[in-house]
Amino acid sequence: MHRVFSGIQPSGELHIGNYLGAVRNWVALQSEYECIFSIVDLHAITQPYDRDALATRTFEMALGLLAAGIDPERSTLFVQSQVAEHAELAWALSVVAPLGDLERMTQFKDKAAREETVPAALLNYPILMAADILLYRADQVPVGEDQLQHLELARELARRWNARFRPGFFAEPQPMLSRARRIVGLDGNAKMSKSLGNTIGILETPEQIWEKLKPAMTDPARKTRKDPGNPDICNIYHLHQHFSTPAQVEHVAHMCRTAGWGCLDCKRLLADNMIAALAPIRERAADLRAHPERVREVLASGAERCRTIARETMGEVREIMGFYGAGAAARAT
Ligand code: TRP
C-alpha cells in the first residue's frame, strides 16, 4: 500500500484556504492510502514566532484537523517536534544537499529578503521537509504548487543519498497535486494566509463569517449597484464555486452580469452555503473542545507510532552511514 505523508504549519486556526487547498484532500485520501499527517512546528520556528503561543497553536491546529475530518482510526496525526529523528535525518541528508540548490529555492529567496539576519534554518527548511517524508519512506506527498520545488529537492536528496550510500534505499516521493487552485484571501489579491489577515477560519461563527464577507473585495470595476459585474475576476464568485451548487453558481454569474443582484445579495448566498458546509466541522470542534484529552491522546499515540517507524529508518541510516555503535559497524569494532 502506498504511504502518504504531508505536513501543515501550526498557524493556529485552520482557514478555508487551508481547508479547500489541502485538508479536504487529505480527508479524502484516508480511504485509499495509509496516511501520516504532521503538524510541522520545527518548520514554523524557521521564521520569527511567538514562543508563548506555539504550543497552543499546535494544539488548535490538531483540533481543527480532527474536526475537519482527519480520522485517527485510519490515519496518524502527530507533532513533528515529538519525533526527534526528523532533525536527525535532516542532518544526515544535509551531507548530500548542494548549497546552490538550497539558495535557489524561491521560497527561501522570498523569506530571506524579508529578514535582516537570515537564519541557517531558513536555508535548511527543505532538507527538513525531505527528512519528514523519507523518514517514513512515504512515496506520495499531497502538496500545493508552492511546495513543488521543495518536493523536487527532496527527490534530488533521496537520489544523491542513495547514490552515495545505498542504491535504492529511499524511494523518490511523488507529488500529488490537489485539484483546487490556490484560494485567494478576502482582499481579492493575495493567497489566503493567516499572516495577511485575509482569512475566514473554519471554526468561525455564522456572524463572524458574515461580518468578514460583507466588506470582502469583489469585481473592483463594479462601482455601484446598477453596474453589471464581471464574475470571472471576482473572488466571491470563485468562492461560490467551492461552496455553492452548479445551478447556484450559474445563477450568481447571470445575476452579476445583468446587475440583477448587488454584491451583498451574492455574498449572502455564499455566507449561507459556507455556514452550512462548515456547520458539521464546528460541531465536531465544539465536542473536542469539551474533551481536550481526546486531542492530546491522538497526538500522543500518533507520536508513539511515528517514533517506532522513525527509529527503524534511522537505525538503518546510522548503520549504512557507518556510525559507531550501529549495526555491522558496531560488530566490527
Ligand atoms: N513546507 C510545507 C508547507 O509549508 C509543510 C511541510 C513540512 C510538508 N514538511 C512536509 C508538506 C512534508 C509535505 C511533506 O506547506
Provide an overview of this structure.
With 333 residues, the chain is mainly α. Helices cover 56% and strands 7% of the residues. The chain has 14 helices and five strands. Helix 7 crosses helix 8 (148-165). The longest helix is centred in the C-terminal third of the chain and has 30 residues, at 292-321. The radius of gyration is 22 Å and the shape is elongated. 38% of the residues are buried. The protein binds tryptophan.
Observed structural traits:
333 residues; Tyrosyl-Transfer RNA Synthetase; three-stranded parallel β-sheet; mainly alpha; 56% helix; Rossmann fold; 5 strands; binds tryptophan
| Radius of gyration, CA atoms, in whole angstroms | 22 Å
Summing up helix and strand content along with how strands pair, one would put the structural category as mainly alpha
Strand content: 5-15%
Number of helices: 14
In terms of per-residue confidence, which ranges show pLDDT below 50 for 5 or more consecutive residues?
Answer: none
CATH class of the largest domain: Alpha Beta
- Number of folding domains? 2
